[in-house]
């Protein structure tokens, strides 16, 4: 044995030290979609809200079909705007990690001051939409699915099933933001369908308008929901980090 040689076994760190994971710090600016998402929401609300905050039925973009239709529509738009703003906060990982209290408060606002009242009003105005039976079916089904995914996410959070909570809320978020996609699809559908007014639609502007509305209604929320599910399933064994 050589003098001065230390033959003691190497120190084995405690189990807690061996299993502890040190996650790298993630800064808010490493989520490049956060800024554009916020800008899109602000721009959309700046365009959509003013006609309804004026409480002037003449400025409504949707013709009324029953006496209280405009009031129901105003409530739907205002509560839906709350849902959009709080959804943008909810989906921001930095806020969830850095300010959990704000995350919880905005989450409750999203559910109880946003989706639930807006979705319930959507059931009524959707069932009475002036844009035809195909759009009517889409609006009512969207309201049901929107309410269902949001409530499932809320229940999962209450039961501390946070993995399920995040998955359901991603679906709810996609449905909340699908109204933006709806407003983009409408003009595109009009560009392709208007030249067929005299042929396919027999000169009926009502039929043309209902077809454009129906395409925007159905395509927007179904595509958004499918995209959300594909995003969730891209790595099924990975913990959600939205």
Tell me the total number of β-strands. 0
Mean pLDDT across the residues is: 86
Radius of gyration: 24 Å
Query: H/E element string?
Result: HHHHHHHHH
Which descriptor suits the 3D outline? globular
Q: Unreliable runs, pLDDT <50, ≥5 residues? A: 15-23, 237-242
Largest sheet: none
Count of helix runs: 9
Strand content: under 5%
Total separate domains: 1
What share of the residues lie within helices? 55-70%
Q: Decide which structural class fits the backbone.
A: mainly alpha
Question: N- to C-terminal separation?
Answer: 58 Å
Give a brief rundown of this model.
By secondary structure, the chain is mostly helical. It has helices at about 15-20, 35-50, 50-55, 70-90, 95-100, 100-125, 135-160, 160-195, 205-230. The protein has nine helices and no strands.
Keywords for this entry:
242 residues; mainly alpha; 0% strand; disordered C terminus
What does this structure look like?
There is one protein chain. The chain has one domain. The chain is 69% helix and 0% strand. The protein is built from 9 helices and no strands. Helix 4 packs antiparallel against helix 6, helix 6 packs antiparallel against helix 7 and helix 7 packs antiparallel against helix 8. The longest helix is centred in the C-terminal third of the chain and has 32 residues. It is globular and about 55 Å long. The C terminus is likely disordered. It holds the Pfam family DUF2306. Keywords: Membrane, Transmembrane, Transmembrane helix. This is DUF2306 domain-containing protein.
């Amino acid at each position: 044995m050589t003098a001065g040689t230390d033959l003691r076994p190497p120190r084995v760190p405690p189990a807690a030290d061996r299993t502890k994971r040190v996650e790298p710090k993630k800064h808010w600016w490493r989520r490049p979609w956060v800024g554009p998402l916020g800008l899109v929401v602000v721009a959309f609300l700046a365009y959509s809200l003013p006609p309804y905050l004026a409480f002037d039925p003449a400025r409504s973009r949707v013709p009324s079909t029953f006496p209280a239709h405009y009031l129901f529509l105003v409530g739907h738009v205002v509560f839906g705007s709350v849902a959009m703003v709080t959804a943008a906060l909810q989906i921001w990982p930095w806020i969830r990690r850095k300010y959990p209290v704000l995350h919880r408060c905005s989450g409750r606002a999203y559910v109880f001051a946003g989706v639930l009242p807006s979705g319930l009003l959507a059931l009524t105005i959707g069932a009475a939409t002036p844009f035809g039976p195909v759009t009517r079916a889409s609006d009512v089904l969207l309201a049901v699915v929107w309410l269902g995914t949001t409530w499932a996410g809320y229940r999962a959070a209450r039961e501390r099933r946070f993995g399920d909570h995040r998955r359901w809320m991603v679906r709810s978020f996609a449905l909340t933001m699908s109204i933006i996609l709806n407003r983009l699809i409408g003009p595109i559908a009009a560009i392709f369908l208007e030249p067929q007014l005299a042929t396919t639609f027999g000169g009926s502007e009502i039929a043309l308008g209902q077809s454009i509305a129906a395409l925007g209604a159905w395509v927007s929320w179904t595509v958004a929901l499918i995209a959300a599910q594909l995003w969730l399933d891209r790595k099924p064994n990975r913990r959600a980090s939205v």
